[in-house]
Automatic annotation (TrEMBL):
Residues 1-59 form the 4Fe-4S domain. This is Acetyl-CoA decarbonylase/synthase complex subunit gamma. Coiled coil: none annotated. Keywords: 4Fe-4S, Cobalt, Iron, Iron-sulfur, Metal-binding, Methyltransferase, Transferase. The gene is cdhE. [4Fe-4S] cluster binds at C17, C20, C25, C42.
Length: 459
């Protein structure tokens, strides 16, 4: 059952002293329940109540951070099975693998590609998050040398070897940077557990398609005092994807519904497995992206991918951005006037709503079309054009207020407003309320730049 603000409030001092920055203990409890403040800000708590609250507030899935200092990434921390019940926390880090036996120049080039991969979508720059160093050579010195080289990378590390000696050699080089150890198995669990303790690093437990064994070994690690554990129940390609999903869903259900302490850890997905069975770059990239998308939707808290083609990564990163938006908060930009190009008093005036996906789509089309214009953005509480028209947020008087409050009438001589094609039913009402002449623009913003060019030709 999900923790409520009242559950938290019962354990707070109830003095309403406001030292936490909130007006009351209830307000603080509400923010704690939504993870919008920190428990430590209440300095008035008795030790026993504090401990109870810390346990109560611990997420169903443990939150784990790898890396140190400026290069860290945090994952896990989820509370619910379904996003609409609350939200999902900590977007799945995308980790790209690098083999320790690559030619030096190819190694450097691949690391550079990983670090520089980024693209912007709806105002957010999407990037990769970590590097997985594979002990493909099977040699401990080669592994350690490559790990040492990655010290200069801007990303945190996942060290991949089932050989405890190779893992120790690499940890000697980068253990102080808190890499994720991948992986402890039934065969090496004692040695890998000892390394996780010695270097104070999180460790992945890899048990293929056997949750009973996973439980047993997770308990073994926990009994040694290891708290930061990542669970990898195996990623299978082809028809095996069904087993993969079953294991991921079962693991997450055991964590959230059953509060099974042996499963309350982040899950690792490894779509990179695809490349064991596929050599063709395009086929492999498509298959890997498909598996990554499947696992992104079903509880993969961290993921190792091999392909670095941007056409493969864009859908995965875009899906991640969508899955990890907070459904409780409208995705909105600030309302007001935005300008494109070198505007003057004769520049055309357009209008749209402040739903961020709408705004950034229009912005992208105006920029790529090299348009020069004003764009008035109406506060529709983050709703799209058709939704806000149906919901009443987009109406004549709201647009009249926007024109008045934004000061656009002092900046242009024109009194012509181009509204989105989907807002056509409100065009008459907008004209009546604003006194401006309304022109209905295209339904698809990709046609706006052409419309502006055409209007310029007519002027
Ligand atoms: S500091 Fe603690 S006791 Fe004071 S108002 Fe905040 S939650 Fe309540």
């Amino acid at each position: 059952m999900q923790l409520t603000a009242m559950d938290i409030y019962r354990l707070l001092p109830k003095t309403n002293c406001a030292k936490c920055g909130e007006a009351s203990c209830m307000a603080f409890a509400t923010k704690l329940s939504e993870k919008e403040t920190d428990l430590e800000l209440c300095t008035q708590m008795a030790a026993n109540e504090l401990e109870k609250l810390e346990n109560l507030l611990a997420p169903a899935v443990r939150e784990i951070t790898i890396g140190k200092g400026a290069k860290t990434v945090t994952f896990g921390g989820d509370e619910v099975l379904y996003r609409y019940e609350l939200t999902y926390y900590n977007p799945t880090p995308i980790v790209i693998d690098v083999a320790d036996n690559m030619e030096e120049s190819a190694f450097d080039e691949r690391v550079k590609t990983i670090e520089e991969t980024e693209f912007e979508r709806t105002g957010e720059v999407l990037t990769l998050n970590a590097i997985a160093l594979r002990n493909a050579s099977g040699d401990k010195e080669t592994f350690a040398k490559a790990a040492s080289k990655l010290k200069s990378s801007k990303f945190p590390l996942v060290l991949c070897s089932l050989d405890p000696e190779a893992m120790k050699a690499a940890l000697e080089e980068v253990g102080d940077e808190r890499p994720l150890i991948y992986a402890a198995t039934e065969n090496n669990i004692e040695e890998m557990a000892a390394l996780a303790i010695e270097y104070d690093c999180p460790v992945t437990l890899f048990v293929q398609n056997d949750l009973e064994k996973m439980k047993e070994l997770s308990r073994t690690l926990r009994a040694k005092g290891i708290k930061d554990i990542v669970l990898d129940p195996g990623t299978f390609v082809g028809e095996g994807i069904g087993d993969t999903l079953d294991n991921f869903v079962m693991t997450r259900r055991l964590a959230i519904k059953e509060k099974d302490e042996d499963f309350r850890f982040p899950i690792m997905g490894v779509p990179a497995i695809t490349w064991l069975f596929e050599e063709d770059e395009v086929e492999g990239g498509i298959k890997e992206a498909t598996i990554a998308a499947t696992l992104m939707n079903k509880y993969s808290d961290i993921m190792i991918i091999h392909g670095t083609n941007i056409w493969e990564l864009i859908p995965v990163l875009t899906l991640r951005q969508s899955v990890y938006t907070d459904p409780r908060k409208p995705q909105a930009v600030d309302p007001g006037i935005y300008t494109f190009g070198d505007v003057d008093e004769n520049s055309p005036v357009l209008m749209t709503t402040n739903f961020s996906l709408t705004y950034y789509t229009v912005e992208g089309d105006l920029k790529s079309g090299k348009a020069t214009c004003y764009l008035l953005v109406l506060d529709t509480e983050g709703r799209a054009v058709d939704v806000s028209l149906a919901g009443g947020q987009l109406n004549g008087s709201a647009v009249a207020d926007l024109i008045k409050d934004s000061g656009i009438e002092d900046r242009v001589k024109t009194r012509n407003l181009i509204i989105p094609g989907l807002a056509a039913p409100a065009s008459g009402e907008i004209e009546d309320e604003t006194g401006w002449e309304v022109k209905v623009g295209p339904r698809d913003s990709s046609a706006i730049a052409d419309l502006l060019l055409k209007l310029k030709g007519e002027a």
